[in-house]
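Query structure, 431 tokens:
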């Protein structure tokens, strides 16, 4: 936020309630307006909206203001009625852009990427990036995480946070962006709550794959012997249960899978758009005719394996040991999987013709960008897959010997402000 809001106040803080015109959507999905010379951020607003807002004096900053929508005076062209009751009645924080049409959402996401490259990377884009889409903006999520809070009667409340009250949760009845079997599985876990660890605040993640639905339980220090097996038996749709105790390693505690895929490891929630992105990524990598590729943050090897089967020598680096082991079983001779932190393994794995990086939202460690920038004399390309335009732009700024040659966005997370970006970089001297 602070990078957007550079304006200094020109007068005292205005009255608490003011009328503003929303100009754009900023990072995080908030509407952006101006009040008395300062930028003001207003969640749940749309470009073109005229709104009455209540300023938050507790969040007053010399660079920006935050506000809460009080009344919609005149709607912008892209505003629609949200489909999910939780979005309005509970101020659900899971989605940020349900009040925008899907076309307006994609325009906003392209603008967020463009703005990040201009402000943070200091590399203005020649044109606004294209945003490719999947078959549906609803029921696409194949995983969902809920907070579980114990009730006085021995039951559990399972839900999500409201966007303006972190820590407080509302009971979730449905999630319209999540596949129905996943929602149903978590509802069944609530009913079988007697088999869960005793803990003040558990977090449950149900993830659907081809083999069924796996559950990850986060929290707790003790779990009664046999309780996980009882939970598995009570909720037939579950195929495996992982437990990540408080201050301890995650472990598999109940299992009836037929295929030992890493069901607790990271995987893209939108399978259709993930497939589109992977196809594009493979095309861009193969365009450089590489003999060697490093796939950093490789997950279970879904990108590394097809490259290796095509004759490329791939080094797949992944910290998650379960995912790395699964990747190793799928890679042919001549390629290898390394279970390690990327910042530790990448400098030793270089050089390579092409390097793929697909980090979490925090982006790349400085040690990684330093190693990549130093490789500009040997590598032909970096393919950076990002779920956070701000950290992508920051990392690109740390690669002064590389030039942006191609960028394409994917609407991996409709109804939210998140967007996936594939950024291709080539050395400055590359023809």
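Result returned for the query:
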């Amino acid at each position: 936020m602070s990078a957007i809001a550079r304006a200094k106040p020109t007068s005292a803080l205005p009255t608490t309630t003011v009328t503003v015109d929303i100009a754009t959507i900023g990072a995080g999905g908030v509407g952006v307006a101006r009040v008395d010379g300062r930028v003001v951020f207003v969640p749940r607003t749309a470009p073109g909206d005229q709104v009455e807002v209540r300023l938050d004096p507790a969040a007053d900053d010399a660079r920006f203001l935050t506000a809460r929508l009080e009344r919609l005076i005149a709607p912008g062209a892209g505003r629609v009625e949200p489909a999910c009751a939780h979005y309005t009645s509970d101020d659900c924080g899971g989605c940020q852009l349900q009040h925008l049409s899907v076309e307006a959402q994609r325009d906003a996401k392209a603008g967020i990427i463009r703005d990040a490259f201009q402000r943070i990377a200091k590399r203005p884009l020649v044109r606004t990036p294209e945003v490719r889409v999947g078959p549906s903006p609803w029921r696409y999520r194949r995983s969902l995480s809920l907070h579980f809070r114990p009730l006085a009667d021995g039951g559990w409340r399972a839900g999500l946070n409201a966007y303006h009250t972190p820590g407080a949760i509302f009971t979730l009845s449905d999630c319209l962006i999540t596949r129905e079997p996943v929602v149903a599985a978590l509802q069944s876990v609530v009913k079988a709550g007697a088999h869960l660890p005793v803990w003040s605040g558990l977090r449950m993640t149900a993830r659907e794959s081809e083999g069924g639905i796996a559950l990850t339980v986060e929290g707790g220090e003790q779990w009664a012997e046999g309780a996980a097996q009882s939970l598995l038996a009570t909720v037939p749709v579950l195929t495996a249960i992982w437990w990540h105790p408080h201050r301890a390693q995650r472990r598999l505690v109940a299992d009836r899978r037929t295929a030992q895929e890493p069901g607790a490891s990271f995987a893209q929630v939108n399978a259709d758009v993930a497939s589109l992105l992977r196809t594009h990524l493979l095309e861009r990598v193969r365009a450089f005719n590489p003999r060697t590729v490093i796939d950093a943050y490789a997950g279970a090897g879904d990108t590394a394996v097809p490259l290796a089967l095509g004759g490329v020598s791939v080094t797949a680096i992944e910290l998650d040991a379960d995912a790395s082991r699964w990747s190793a079983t799928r890679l042919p001779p001549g390629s290898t999987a390394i279970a390690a932190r990327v910042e530790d393994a990448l400098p030793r794995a270089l050089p390579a013709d092409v390097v793929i990086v697909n980090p979490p939202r925090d982006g790349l460690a400085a040690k990684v960008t330093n190693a990549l920038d130093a490789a500009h004399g040997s590598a032909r390309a970096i393919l950076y897959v990002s779920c956070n335009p701000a950290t992508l732009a920051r990392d690109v700024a740390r690669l002064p010997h590389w030039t942006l040659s191609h960028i394409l966005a994917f609407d991996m997370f409709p109804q939210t402000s998140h967007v996936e970006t594939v950024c291709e970089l080539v050395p400055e001297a590359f023809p």
